[in-house]
Predict the 3D structure of the following.
Amino acid sequence: QNQGEGPMYWYWSLVALLLAILLIGVVGLLARNYFGRKIIEWVDSALLRIPLLNKIYSATKQVNDAFSSTNKTAFRTVVLVEFPHPGIWSIGFITGEQPDEVQARIGQRAVCVFVPATPNPTSGFLLMVPEAKVIKLDMSVPNAIKYIISLGAIQPDHAALPRVTGAVPVPPGTPSGSGLP
């Protein structure tokens, strides 16, 4: 017949929006109590049993957990690392410690540092950096992200540091000759 063609009344869009808001609210309320958490766990385990989908869902869930407010270590510390080569410094975020295998193979304690790309901080590089070559900053994570997105135009708020004239101090653990000139 007319195959779904015809006038679209504005109030149906409003009904759909209100229904979506109601559904999200109900799911949120259910998730707060025991019964709702059990339903979410059941759906979670069901999704993890589906062959190809379980890999995608599991990876997405791990990334979400890393960025959640309950994770107290990821993206909490702003650091400077020499990247992409010695003498060039980049701002990064410590995301965690290296797996035992990596630390055993490189023979020293190392941390995972995410160096975001500018101006899009959702992409970047994951570096495995010896802990001695990481310089921790007092800069807050929001200030560091603003600095990165603005291409360095917005200076982060920080306490006044003593002005160094002449040579820039080489951070601890940095081999001589690879610091800033």
DSSP finds five helices and five strands in the chain. The first strand starts at residue 77 and ends at 82. Helices lie at 10-32, 34-48, 51-67, 100-106, 141-149.
